[in-house]
Description:
This protein is mainly alpha-helical.
Amino acid sequence: MTVSPLTRWLLRLAMAAGLAVIYVPLALVLVNSFNADRTFAWPPPRWTTGWWVRAWDSTGAREALWTSVKAGLGATAVALVLGTMVAFAVQRYRFFGREAVSLLVVLPIALPGIVTGIALDSAFRTVAEPLGVGKGLLSVVVGHATFCVVVVYNNVVARLRRLGGNLAEASADLGASPVQTFRYVTFPLLRSALFAGALLAFALSFDEVIVTTFTAGPGVRTLPLWIFENLFRPNQAPVINVVAAVLILASVIPIYLAQRVSAGSGGGRI
Length: 270
């Protein structure tokens, strides 16, 4: 399609305006984390790394960071196993309800977070707690895994569709067992998709707030929850900016790496 120079410039301006709305506030958070003024005077009268030192010395922030890492790793591990298994079942086999299974796997990421949180809270109170399984880090991992499974599933399904079944059939014709075919043929071709899915799943889990609010037990605080609880406390705003800056970087880096891995392995959607 051919567009006029004026249309191209208007599209560029619209794109620049959209990116500015998204990224300028994030940039201000990063800049204010080095702003020496507690009221965030602009432009900053002077710069300091003191807020970063104070944030690192905060026991609550460090514990919340470690909790977020553990929850993210746990949810990512669950998502890798379940998402890969369901992707193989849906893509490689034909069975009754196949499309329904695919829809049910993808649905959690489309539901509002508060709906998922309320449903999980109800499930834990009516099913898990009578069995002696209370809310804690495990419930957070389960809650996060419900939507992290989707990104792994989408990555693996997309890769399996591009691969087809010819390579696996050729491996079987050459005498390889199903385990050998998976180890030497299928897994190497899926490795980058699994890695990209794991990075995206970890990023989603790391900055989740709503579902965590409903699934975290007493004393379990992830980094986003810690930020929310301390946001309006006196003299905590500079430290909150530092922690928010760390959260931004911790979310951006996995997504960037996932995009690079996906592009380097032949493209395809994530």
